[in-house]
Amino acid sequence: THSCNPYDQLGHLSISPSEPFSNRWIPYRVDCQPPALMASLVREAWAIQPPDAKTLSNRREWEDVSWATNRTVVLIGDSLGRENVGFFCQLLGEQLFEINYQHPWHPSGVVNKLRKRQPSHHSHACYIPSIDFLVIQVFTFGLDVDGYWSGREPLSKPYPYESRMAELARPYVDAARGVEAEPDLVYLASAMWDLAKWREDDGRAGQDAESGLDTERLEWYRTRVRDVLLTAREVFPSSPLAWLTNHYQNKCNKLAWRDDRSRGRQSDEREHQQRPFHRLNRLAQMNQAARSAYEKDHLGAGVDTNMWGEIMIGQEKWQRDDLHHLMFPGGYVWADILLYDLKAAVEERTRWW
Asked: Could you tell me where the Basic and acidic residues compositional bias lies (predicted)?
């Protein structure tokens, strides 16, 4: 049993770009330290012989990761999730692959004629054959229900978050693992596209885009988080669910991650395009609002929280570009938390629902 979750504890982030296993969250509580799960899984997947020493160089013990064999994880989210799954794959010696409309897992009834191909908006997956470990990542465009991004991005259909779970994620799992197979863990997240929409709305309205979110927006966000979690429970009725806290660096350059050439830069948005598409005050509000939406009543009994986003706040130095982080520390720490959550789900399933 898990007497404590080290990633819920107060602590600090150890960072090393040259020593992968040294990238970890270090709680101040000495009796609640995170196990070296990713390091141990790397050793297992690569069939590396255990060293004579019983511990890693940072004094963490090697872990038994036999429980990780034949596991399936589903992640519903944006490009940060895709990057993290890609890093996970690379660390284990495999390559992330695209699930496009020609892929055998893709449902035949879901088609889309894009004006131009945008592979990053397709689903992706990582498969580790040595341990039969599968992670499926389904890209979403935020919690919007009105088609705000339709026609402005080369979007793969369907558009709504809930539909992408039911019409893409569920068929992918069925095709890869067998009909009615249940993932061992389902992660859900949404913030980047929601923040970007509000930034544009504020720009057009001449409103202050750097102030906090008002009650109306926060209540809308809380409602939508509950909506997608309830849908996830219907789509994956016996799978443990977890909400991912979000992190995007505060220096993001002018919404440059978006391809919006067809729309142009309207004069009434020009000022706002020179600033980040979000502020940490808004992101912090959303992380709090999301947790408040499910950490109560019966819904909360079946939803855990992944604190990766909170742990990564302030780590702008370790970014690959204006939006995405590097493998170290972000990608590696994400992998360690994923494995911790998965182990908890496998060994303590009854506490999730």
From this structure: 259-274
List the structure tokens of 128.
């580790």
Residues 46/39, Cβ–Cβ less than 8 Å: no
Which residue reads 């799978």 in tokens?
Answer: 239
Give the C-alpha separation, 49 to 338, whole Å.
24
Q: What is the mean pLDDT of each run of 10 residues along the chain (353 residues)?
A: 85 95 96 96 76 61 93 96 97 95 89 58 94 97 93 77 97 96 97 92 91 96 97 96 84 50 43 54 94 78 90 85 87 98 84 45
Tell me if 165 sits within 8 A of 131, measured CB to CB.
no
CA dihedral 142, 148, 151, 153 (to 10 degrees): -30
The torsion region of residue 235 among left (phi > 0), alpha (psi -120 to 50) and beta comes to alpha
Q: How many CB atoms lie within 10 A of CB 49?
A: 6
Whole-structure pTM value: 0.89
Catalogue all structural domains in the chain, each as residue range(s) with its CATH number.
67-351 (3.40.50.1110)
Q: For residue 162, what are the CA distances in angstroms to 140, 229, 234?
A: 9, 9, 10
Instruction: Please answer whether residues 168 and 105 qualify as being in contact, where contact means their C-beta atoms are separated by less than 8 angstroms.
Output: no
Please, are residues 131 and 68 in contact by the beta-carbon 8 Å criterion? yes
First to last CA, the chain: 16
User: For residue 83, which of 326, 340, 251 has the smallest C-alpha distance?
Assistant: 326
